[in-house]
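Please check what follows.
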Amino acid sequence: MPGLLLRDARPWRAGGRADLLIRDGVFAGIGPGLPAGDAEVLDLGGRLVLPGLVEAHCHLDKTLFGGPWRPHSAGPALADRIADERVHRAELGLPTPAHVTALLETMAAAGTTHVRTHTDVYAGIGLTGVEVVRDVAARLAGRVTVEQVAFPQSGILTNPGTAELLERAIGLGVGTVGGIDPAGMDRDPVRHLDVVFGLAERHGVRIDLHLHDPGTLGVFELDLIVDRTRAAGLAGRVTVSHAYALAQADAATQDRLAAGLADAGVTITTAAIFDFPVPPVKKLREAGVNVACGHDDIRDLWSPYGSGDLLERAMHLAYRSTFRRDEDIEIALEAVTFGSAHALGLERYGLVEGASADLVVVDAETPAHAVVTRPPRDLVVKAGRIVARSGALTSRVN
C-alpha cells in the first residue's frame, strides 16, 4: 500500500499543526516537517482532522434509505411501531441489500468508518437480516467496517426459539448479543439477562441491551445489569442503549447509578431522538462512564428521519443536552468518536502513532464549530486509504 502524507493538518487534541504520515494502514508519524519519502502528499492548509466517526447504534436491516418516500404509518407507542413493522416489512422486501448499501455508502462518505448495527432476529424472519447485512458489509469492507448485534426485537422469552436463533447468529460471526426491556417486554428480567449474559459468557461476545423501560423499573434493571456485568467479569464489554430511566431518575439516583456503571465498565449509548429522555451525558462522563452515540432508526418504518451523518447526530446530542460552551459540545463529539470506539472494542483508535489511520478532514475553526455547522467532509481515510473526497465516495478505494 503506498504511503500518504497529510501536511499542515490540525489534528484534534494535538495542540497545534502537524503532519500525519500514514503507512501500511496506520499512523507512522505525527509531527511537524515529516519527510514524505515515496508517500503521496496532500496539503490540508491547516484544516481540522478528526478521527474516523463511529456509529454505535443503528438498524441497517430496517432501512428504506435510497428508496421511494414512504409516509410513516405506525402509532406513537413502542408496541405500535413493532406491530407496524411486522405488518409491512415483508411487503417492502426488508431487509433490502440496495437500501443497506445506500445507507452505508452515505455514512462512509460522511466520515463514518465503523458501524454497530442491531439486526432483528426472531421466528418468522430467522437470520435473513444477519445474512443480508453481512453480505453488504463484506462488499464495502474497504470503506466501512460493520459489526452486527443479534437483536431480539420482540423479546426472548415471549418468542420461543429466539434464544436459539441468537446463538445461531453468533455462529455466523455476529460479535454482539442484544436484549430488549427484560422487564417491560419479557416480564422476567432475571431470566432474560440469564439468556443474554449466558450467551456472552459461553461465546465470548459483547452485549448491547435496548432499555426503554422508564422510571423505577428501568433503574431496577440498570442495577441488575451492573451487578451481572461485575459478576461475569465483562467490564468494557456491556452496553445499555437508550437508558431512558437514567435520565428520569432524581439527582441522587443518577449519581449512584453513574458510580455503579463506571465501576462495572458499562457503556451508555444514546441517540438523542425526538423527545425521548437523554441520559445526563456530562454527569456520566465526569463519573467515568463511557458514553457512545448513534442514530437509532434511519428512514425506516420506525422513523422517517435520519441522514447517516454522525456530526449531525452529535449536534442533536449537544442540543438536547443544552450544551453551549465549546468544551461541552466536544463531549458530544467524543460520544461519536472515542466513546463509540470504546463501546465497539476498537483497540487501535485515534490520531496517534500506531493507530489505524481512520480520519475525517473538515474546514472548521474548532471541533465544536464542526459539530454545530457540520461542514462538508473534504477527505475521509479508512485504514490508510482515501475513500471519499468532497463529500462523495471515490470510484475506488485508493
